[in-house]
Amino acid sequence: MRVTSSEAATIVRSVLGRGLTFEQADQIIKAMVPVSAEPGMVVMREGERGRGLLVLLEGSAEVLKQGRDGGEMPIASVEAPTVLGEMSLITSGRTRRPSARSPPASSSSSPARCSTG
Q: Where are the domains of the chain?
């Protein structure tokens, strides 16, 4: 299933704030870069510099936190539509706290389709 521009604008308005006009949401959509995440693909990595947010348009994503042993531990699973990495808009230049990835192929969850901006 492909999300249309109108549907994406509605999603952006619903997850970023209903105060946005359709024109403002459309400007955000035009500035975003679509990403189709393969199963298991990391779309945000803990420790990377935050450069924008990620709007999850379809599917789901696992939120991971690095453990003391260096391995990644799942701490949440989120379903579309939602926003990830929005704190990077407030904490400019700081590193990301959790990672997010598309569920592995062995999962029953749908792969993530998202846009970054």
A: 34-116
CA neighbor of 37 nearest in space, from 89, 98, 87, 107: 107
pLDDT, tens digit (0-9, with 9 covering 90-100), for 53-77:
788 888 889 999 998 998 889 999 9
* DSSP 8-state secondary structure symbol assigned to residue 81: S
Q: What is the pTM of this model?
A: 0.72
CB 58 within 8 A of CB 79: no
pLDDT of amino acid 106: 62
Look at residue 76 in the predicted model and tell me its pLDDT.
Answer: 92
Please provide the CATH number assigned to the domain covering 34-116.
Answer: 2.60.120.10
94 CB-contact burial (10 Å; exposed 0-12 / middle 13-18 / buried 19+): exposed
Task: Measure the CA dihedral 45/48/53/57, to 10°.
Answer: -20
β-strand partners of 74: 64
Vertex 96: Cα angle to 90 and 102 (nearest 5): 115
Q: How many CB atoms lie within 10 A of CB 74?
A: 12
